[in-house]
Each structure stands twice: as structure tokens, then as C-alpha cells.
Amino acid sequence: MNKLQQILENFPDEGFIIVDGYDNAVIGVDTNSTPMRLVYSVSEMIQCLIDEGMTEDDAIDHYEYNTVRSLPYVENAPILVNTDFF
Known about the structure:
alpha+beta; three-stranded mixed β-sheet; 36% helix; 15% strand; globular
């Protein structure tokens, strides 16, 4: 069971915004916000894309162009945390 599944099981009534394709990049939940928000690791998000067959450079470009640029338009969007710096 991955972290996302654990969170969904523990908070079944929360309407979390889930970013498709990045289930394995969820590292936690912000319980101080209302509604609660999922927390994703940026490096794990990029690793998810690499695992799907992208090169590291393509994965970074895809993440920056398609994911980061879309989240400001999503109400109660997940939190993205950088733990590694490129």
C-alpha cells in the first residue's frame, strides 16, 4: 500500500485533489489547511515520469511545463515540496 492509499484510507471523507500519474510521489498530507491538501515530492514526481520511460531531461521539462503550470489554476491544489535541487 503506497502513501496515497494510506491517506485516502485514513481520511475517507476528504476531497483531496490528486495529480494523475504521481501516486507514488505523495509523501504526506497538510492537515493544517481546510480542506486538507496532499503533499508531493518533486523529485519523486520526476522519478514517476522516468519510470514511465522518459529521460531525466524530458521528465523535468514535462513536470515544469505540464504540472507546475497547471496547479495555480486548481483550487486547493496539492503542495509540491522540493527536497532535491537540480
